[in-house]
Amino acid sequence: MSDLAEHNRQHFDKVATTHQNDFGELIEAAIREFKARRGWITPALSNSPSSEAGKELRVLDYACGAGTVSKALAPYATQTIGLDLSLGMIAEYNKAASEMGFSNEKMHAYQYNLLAADTDSDSVTSSLPENTLAPFDVIVIGMALHHVSEPNVLLARFKELLKPGGVCVVMDMVPTDDAPDIEGVLEPSQLEVMRTIGKRGFTEQEMRELYEGAEMGKGFDYVVIEEKFRFTMFGHQFRVTGFMARGEVE
Q: For the chain, which end, N or C, has fewer CB atoms within 10 Å of the first or last residue's CB respectively?
C-alpha cells in the first residue's frame, strides 16, 4: 500500500466518528448536489429502482467514507456498494445504511483498495462476497480523488468495473486562486493531515485528460458548483470551490 493510502487509512480511522460533524455542511451540500443531478449522471437514476427483470442498477461508491454519495443515490439504485480504506468509516457507512432501513443486499460497505497490487501483502482488502465487483452501471468517487496517489490508474480501474455505457462521476475541488491557505492557519502539530492529500484539486482540462486516458471520455462534462463547500478542520472554518465531472465508457 502506498504511503499516501496508509496516511489516509490512519487519518480517517481517527476521525471517523467526528468527521460528519466537522464536514457536516460540506456533506449536506454534496448530498443535495448528487440528488439534484441524478438525471445528469444518468437518466436511469431519475426514478425509483424498478422491480422488473433486467432493470438492475448497481452503484459503486468508492472511497465511500460514511456514505455521502450513497445516502443520495442508494434510494434510486437496486444495489449500492461502498469501498473504503478505513474500517472506522466503513462502520459509519453501514450504520447509516441500517438507519435508512436498507438491507446489506441493498447498501453495504467493505474495506477494499482498488489500487492494491495482488501481491501487496500490506494491501487493505477484506474478503468480498462473490460478485461484489460485478460490473456496475455507475461508479462515483466523492471528494476523495485528491487523496489518491494515482488518479489515472484509479479511473482506468473504474473503467474495467463498468458495464458498457456505464458512467463514472467525480466530485472534487477546483484549484482556484482563492483556495484556503490551510498550512498558514493550522498549528505545526496539526499539519499531519496534509499528508493525506495528493493533489489540490483538478481543472476541467486535467479531468478531461483523465477521463479520455481511461477511455471514458464519451459524454464528458465538468460542472463547477456555484455554492462553495464549507468545512471545519481543527476548529477553523474553510471554503472550497467544488466541481462534478462525468464521462461514459466509450
A: C
| C-alpha cell read off for 148 | 489518491
Interval 189-215: pLDDT, tens = 777 877 788 898 999 999 999 999 999
Please enumerate in sequence order all residues whose Cβ is within 8 A of that of 194, keeping only pairs 6 or more positions apart, or say none.
Answer: 182, 183
Do residues 241 and 174 touch, judged by C-beta distance below 8 A? yes
- Cβ contacts of 88 within 8 Å, gap of 6 or more: 12, 13, 14, 15, 16, 17
Can you list the domains of the chain with their CATH numbers? 3-39+56-163+193-203 (3.40.50.150)
Sole residue written with cell 461514459 = 248
Cell of 31: 448530498
* Number of neighbours of residue 146 by Cβ within 10 angstroms: 16
Q: Which one, of 152, 148, 135, lies nearest residue 60 by Cα? A: 135
